Amino acid sequence: MTPAAPAVGFVSDDLTGGLLVASYFEEAGLACPVILGAEAAAAEPPRAPLAVVATRARLAPVAQALEETGRAFDALEAAGCAAFGYKVCGTFDCTEEGNIGPVAERLADRFGAPLLIQPGYTEFGLTVHWGHMFYRGVLLSESDKRFDPVTPMPDPNLARFLSRSTRAPVPLLSHFEMAGGEAAARAALAARTAEGARLVMLDASDDGDVATAVRLAAGARAMVGSDSFVIAFGLARAAGREGEAPPPRHVDGPAALFVGSVGPVAEGQLAEFEAAGHPVLRLDLLAEDEEAATVAAALDWAEERLGDRPFAVTTLADAAGVKRAQAALGVLGAARKAERLLAGVAAGVHARGARRILVGGGETSGAIAQALSVPRLRAMPRGPQGGGFCAAEGTAPLSLYLKSGKMGAPDAFLRALEAMKP
To answer: How far apart are the first and last CA of the chain?
Structure first.
């Protein structure tokens, strides 16, 4: 008997976000392959309770993001998915041009309005109240997020911020309207729709708001959400399904860490890794060498240490270094150069025998997975370390730990290395 098509096909705006929600589904016993790109999804349509197509749409120019996510949704629709979701970052990372707003409008045009949008990750203290995002009681604009070199999100009012990239203002369905019960929430949503709203943002003050959002979206073909809404929506739609594949397992072998993220969290985690006696190579984005020469020199350094003990290669810089690189290369140019360098080194290290790859940074994770030519991944069920652990599907054994640069305790990489032992 041929396995059924996914109950929901999600498109994530980066790889680490897609892996994180997949780890919740795997923990619930629902197989959820994470497919890298629309072409891989079209070539081998997913047959599992749930599926994620990971893109690199978060920082792409709007036209490119629309094209990339559109092809991903095309592949999922052709695979027979019953419903669709766009998974965005827990902190709702975007710029005033996009890409969340333009992608959401395309989904509403394609799958019907009103399209519900709910940011937040309540389990980790990322909440939305009266449209404003808080991280553990601190406004997003006053948290460490303000140091993000690409998407600092200076306006914590996400409905207002999102409206700068949409054709019409995005109204809010507040916590108080949802706390009044499902009937009251539906009446409030109907009122917004009657006023012409095609996109409606929902507060996520607590788990009750998330549960109400899922009930309001019960008949919808599509939704947009951060972690909490995506996880709850997927679990509800795939209820009663069982995974058709055994859970993945780690493999043993030499380990290497790559850190492309910047900011206090990444700095603390790399410092802990180095303090434990692991060597670290720092690459300078403003070095005069050609990129190929920089990668070759880094590989020479890495090859001498491969298999001895885990090591790290990073482009991380302090705030002053980030500003210098961005002034010389542009904000996105600096980020993309860092990704190219680290992806080149990671591919070379893997070719030389590395079998455990750890990455800090969502965009960096996507670039490295692409360089490793991995078509799809299976997330490990969540454990004490949380999500981010996965294994490459196929004949070449490879274990990975891919995490957002903004998440995790200072010893996250050290604990991940222990957890990756088979």
So the answer is: 32
DSSP 330: -
Residue 397 CA to residue 226 CA, distance in Å, equals: 31
Residue 335, burial from CB neighbour count under 10 angstroms (0-12, 13-18, 19+): buried
- Quote the pLDDT of residue 163: 97
Closest alpha carbon to 162 in 151, 177, 149: 151
> In degrees rounded to 5, what are phi and psi of residue 213?
-60, -40
Residue 143: helix, strand or coil by DSSP? coil
* pLDDT number for residue 182: 95
* Structural domains of the chain in order of their starting residue, each with its CATH number: 8-237 (3.40.50.10840), 255-419 (3.40.980.20)
Which pLDDT score, from 0 to 100, does residue 14 have?
A: 92
CA pair distance 96, 77, nearest whole angstrom: 29
**At residue 16, what are phi and psi to the nearest 5 degrees?**
-65, -35
Alpha-carbon dihedral sign for residues 207, 209, 215, 218 = negative
The low-confidence residues of the chain, meaning pLDDT below 70, are 1-2, 243-245, 393-395
Per-residue burial over 11-21, b if 16 or more Cβ lie within 10 Å, else e, is bbbbbbbbbbb
> CB–CB of 277/221 below 8 Å?
no
Tokens of 244: 């058709």
Other beta carbons within 10 Å of 163: 18
Q: Going by DSSP bridges, is the β-strand pair 8-12/138-139 parallel, antiparallel, or unpaired?
A: unpaired
- Residue of 293, 308, 315, 389 lying closest to 353 (CA atoms): 308
pLDDT of 422 reads: 75
The radius of gyration computed from the CA coordinates of the chain, to the nearest angstrom, equals: 21
Provide the pLDDT for residue 87.
98
Q: In degrees, to the nearest 5, what angle opens at C-alpha 186 toward C-alphas 183 and 192?
A: 145
Measured distance CA(407)–CA(362) in Å, rounded: 10
Sequence-ordered strand ranges (E) for 123-198? 126-129, 132-135, 138-139, 172-173
Sequence-separated (6 or more) residues with CB below 8 Å from residue 153? 91, 92, 93, 94, 133, 140, 141, 145, 146, 161
Partners of 8 in the beta sheet? 50, 83
Which pLDDT belongs to residue 244? 62
In this structure, the strands spanning 132-135 and 255-259 are: unpaired
* Helix 362-371 vs helix 331-351: crossing angle, to nearest 10: 40
Strand partners, 222: 84
